[in-house]
Amino acid sequence: MNAKLDSGVTTRPVTRQTFDEVLVPTYAPANFVPVRASGLDVWDQEGKHYLDFTSGIAVCSLGHSNPVLNAAVIKQMQTAWHFSNAYTNEPVLRLGLALTEATFADRAFFCNSGAEANEAALKLARKYAHAKFGPHKSRIVSCLSSFHGRTLFTVSVGGQSKYTEGFEPLPQDINHINYNDIESARAAITDDVCAVIVEPIQGEGGVIPGDLAFLKELRELCNKTGALLIFDEVQSGVGRTGALFEYMNIGITPDILTSAKALGNGFPIGAMLTTNEIAQQFNVGAHGTTYGGNPLAATAALTVLDEMSKPGFFDRVKEASARIFANLEQLAVDYPQLFGKVRGKGLLIGLPMAEGYKGKAKDYTKTAEKLGLMLLVAGPDVVRLAPPLVVSDAQIAEADRIMRQAADEFLKAA
């Protein structure tokens, strides 16, 4: 029999070791425990300060504890938290209007994460194809090294076998092509394909921008075969590339777009956007979610969109991006034995390790972390930078200083 719940459970001391003792080991978090954050500043249990160039993996794009967001969410918390989808609510209606007015879409579906948004997109694509063409049109085409979520369906669609090992049998009728390979796409996208899903910039796969010719070819092949083109903008969207969504930068309109991460600035929310014609296949009862579009999440997302709509916001993202790219290009020149050519777009940036240090990206970020700079990796070979979009010039300069110091210390220890 289990012991009685301890009345002091909410205040007992915890450390990084507590993770290893009580949580399922699906992650290997850093050795420090963040307890407080503001803007790009983070402090751990020991009071040590860090400069955050991760944004919680491209999530907190307006910075931690953003006061405008705090005020909006607190006001909504004092009004109503949750009604369920047996009812609608004013914030989600406003959010639906805001996103459809700002994008190609006529309809929005709200959920709680990027994986759920992609799950909804893939289910909708199959249902649409079955209704319009018949059940033979069911195959889904994705790209190798892609990442679309951790549900069984989305992890199968993602093009990284390490995430599907041990979970077989996997959903069927899913094929993978080489990213940025037009001939691979032409061979795979035939009349039995219901959907092609692609990240305009591969995030977890190494921060690799999609070639414009490749993405245009996907659009044309989908037009030709009647397949739906799904853009996964979970990581690239909501301002990170200097536009609300990357499809706007490149001038290629998908049939379905998925968003999450930065949409709620840390409050869990996902969105699937599509057209009237396609959305009609999700009739009452065809799909759903208990928490999707709740007033708190919708308020957070609305406030994010409102802040990003202010004059000059995206121009500043591009300006900050140019500064960071210039710094990293010079870093690679000064440390050619350690780093390769920087790549990415906006404030989603990848810095590959040089040939002699392949597989050591995490080791480098740990060195930077000890010096007070939080960085990400995108696979074992790429250092990933995804700072909040509100990053200042002074913070960009400080990150550059720490990255150089980390490079010196990393090379000495190698």
From TrEMBL:
Residues that bind N(2)-acetyl-L-ornithine: R150, T289
Major subcellular site: cytoplasm
GO molecular function terms noted in the UniProt entry: N2-acetyl-L-ornithine:2-oxoglutarate 5-aminotransferase activity; succinyldiaminopimelate transaminase activity
Highest taxon of source: Bacteria
Manner of cofactor binding, per the entry note: Binds 1 pyridoxal phosphate per subunit.
PROSITE patterns per UniProt: AA_TRANSFER_CLASS_3
Pfam families, per the entry: Aminotran_3
PTM annotation (N6-(pyridoxal phosphate)lysine): residues: K261
Binding, pyridoxal 5'-phosphate: G114, A115, F147, D232, E233, V234, Q235, T290
Keyword DNA repair set for record: no
Pathway as given in its UniProt record: Amino-acid biosynthesis; L-arginine biosynthesis; N(2)-acetyl-L-ornithine from L-glutamate: step 4/4
UniProt KW keywords: Amino-acid biosynthesis, Aminotransferase, Arginine biosynthesis, Cytoplasm, Pyridoxal phosphate, Transferase
Record localization: Cytoplasm
Coiled-coil annotated spans: none
SUPFAM superfamilies membership: PLP-dependent transferases
Entry EC no(s): 2.6.1.11
Cofactor(s) annotated in UniProt: pyridoxal 5'-phosphate
Catalysis: reaction(s): N(2)-acetyl-L-ornithine + 2-oxoglutarate = N-acetyl-L-glutamate 5-semialdehyde + L-glutamate
Oligomer status and interactors: Homodimer.
Additional free-text comment from the UniProt record: May also have succinyldiaminopimelate aminotransferase activity, thus carrying out the corresponding step in lysine biosynthesis.
PANTHER family, alphabetized: AMINOTRANSFERASE CLASS III, SUCCINYLORNITHINE TRANSAMINASE
Family affiliation: Belongs to the class-III pyridoxal-phosphate-dependent aminotransferase family. ArgD subfamily.
Protein's recorded name: Acetylornithine aminotransferase
Organism: Massilia terrae
Name of the coding gene: argD
